[in-house]
Amino acid sequence: MSKDMMPHFDLYQPDTIEAAVDLATRLGGDGWLLGAGQDSYDWLKNRTKRTSAVIELTGIATLKGVRELDGGLEIGALTTLTEIENDPLVRERFGLLSKAAGRVASPQIRNVGTLGGNLCQDTRCWYYRYGVDCYRAGGNMCYADTPEGQNREHAIFGASRCVAVTPSDTANAIVALEGSMVIRHAGGERVVPAAEFFVGPAVNIRRMTVLEPGEILVAVRIPAKWAGATFYFEKVADRAAWDFALLSIAAAFRFDGDRISDASLVCGAVECVPHRLTAVQAALRGSLRNDETSDRVAKLAVEGARPLNFNHFKIPLMENLVRRAIRDA
Ligand SMILES: Cc1cc2nc3c(=O)[nH]c(=O)nc-3n(C[C@H](O)[C@H](O)[C@H](O)COP(=O)(O)OP(=O)(O)OC[C@H]3O[C@@H](n4cnc5c(N)ncnc54)[C@H](O)[C@@H]3O)c2cc1C
Ligand code: SF4
Questions:
Q1: Is 17 helix (H, G, I), strand (E, B) or coil?
Q2: How many CA atoms lie within 13 A of 52 on its CB side?
Q3: pLDDT tens digit string along 14-67?
Q4: 4 domain-assigned
Q5: Hey, which residues does 56 pair with through a beta bridge?
Q6: Cβ < 6 A, ligand 1 pocket
Q7: Range of the domain at 221
Q8: Which residue has the least CA distance to atom 49 on ligand 1?
Q9: DSSP string, 270-298
Q10: 314 CA to centre of ligand 1 in angstroms
């Protein structure tokens, strides 16, 4: 068996959102939604996941592009990461998202990879990607959370049987910007806050988002609240390009003179969902921007962390990213 060859499936290429929703409803769990396939093709070529039908969304023109919306923006789910990185409105108002999109994978993947695919991609846990029968795959153990488990990339927060982390770089920026997800289904539309869109293993160990079969993410809305704020994004990975985060931080600040009047901070690759630093945000409001504040809140950021055998390094790394966000934003 060649692992490079995808098994046969029926390919549907709708050119309207209505037709796509109709197909997704009809096919239910058998209808694999496809953006640019940069996550999907791995699964299908490796034959670790199979499907009998693929619904390719890239022919739906209305799902592409960046639009003004009440001082904020609405970004179509089929907009590519390169378009988001370079869009003048995204850059001017929400440089945080432009920066995060520009740090995904490689230029080639960003040129085709879509925002929707980036947000809805599955976790990169080695074991799961290579087809072992772990909890997330329907089995009864976690291979990463064992004494010998290769868990350098895995979670230090929010584990519940599974210790996999969110792989999406844009997800953290969108949660920090208090965005929301526009979801279409046969009955109409629902809008879900980005912070509630991603689900951890305690909620559902078999999926990464709230999307049900038959539902399609059609757009992301970013409200005006953080437009033009002072931002900081940093992603630490083993390689500068073509690599997932070992840890990342997406932060937005408002200043009043020397003081921080408001802050929104989210870390990536420490939990199965974007990890909001709620205690840090509360402690920062009204604080002076100085080393004493940074040291104090850096400790708060890692309270409750539970490292695995090979990822203790994430604790000092996370503290340092919080310090750097406050100092260098
Ligand atoms: C070598 C390599 C390196 C990578 N590095 C990074 C990285 O550093 N950071 C990072 O964030 N990502 C990374 N990725 C992951 C991913 O390929 C890209 O993030 C890309 O943006 C995914 O977009 P896509 O359109 O190709 O997704 P697809 O593969 O088309 O879709 C991904 C998933 O989302 C679902 N989906 C797609 N669109 C929708 C929609 N509109 N509604 C509902 N569900 C949908 C699909 O069904 C599928 O399950 C990497 C991938 C590779 C192969
Ligand atoms: S971390 Fe999650 S995905 Fe990875 S082996 Fe454990 S249960 Fe499976």
A1: helix
A2: 5
A3: 999 999 999 999 999 999 999 999 999 999 998 899 999 999 999 999 999 999
A4: no
A5: 34
A6: 32-40, 57, 77, 81, 104-105, 109, 113-114, 116-118, 120-121, 167-169, 211, 216-217, 242-244
A7: 61-121+164-225
A8: 121
A9: SSSS-EE-HHHHHHHTT-BSSHHHHHHHH
A10: 25
Indicate whether 320 and 283 sit together in one domain. yes
Check: CB of residue 126 under 8 Å from CB of residue 163.
no
CA of 37 from ligand 1 middle (Å) equals: 7
Q: Ligand 2 pocket test: which of 127, 166, 310 has the largest number of ligand atoms within 8 Å of its C-beta?
A: 127
C-alpha 171/C-alpha 238 separation (Å) is 20
Match 């309270």 to its residue by tokens: 303
pLDDT at 2: 59
Core vs surface per residue 28-42: b (16+ CB within 10 A) or e: eeebbbbbbbbbbee
Residues in contact with 314: Cβ distance below 8 Å, sequence separation at least 6, in sequence order: 156, 246, 247, 269, 270, 305, 307
The answer to whether 46 touches 3, Cβ cutoff 8 Å, is: yes
HSE-CB of 186 using CA atoms within 13 angstroms: 10
Region of 195 on the Ramachandran plot (φ > 0 left; ψ -120 to 50 alpha; else beta) = alpha
Domain-terminating residue out of 206, 225, 244: 225
Both 188 and 99 in one domain: the answer is yes
109-156 pLDDT per residue, tens: 999 999 999 999 999 999 999 999 999 999 999 999 999 999 999 999
Tens-place pLDDT, residues 254-307 = 999 999 999 999 999 999 999 999 999 999 999 999 999 999 999 999 999 999
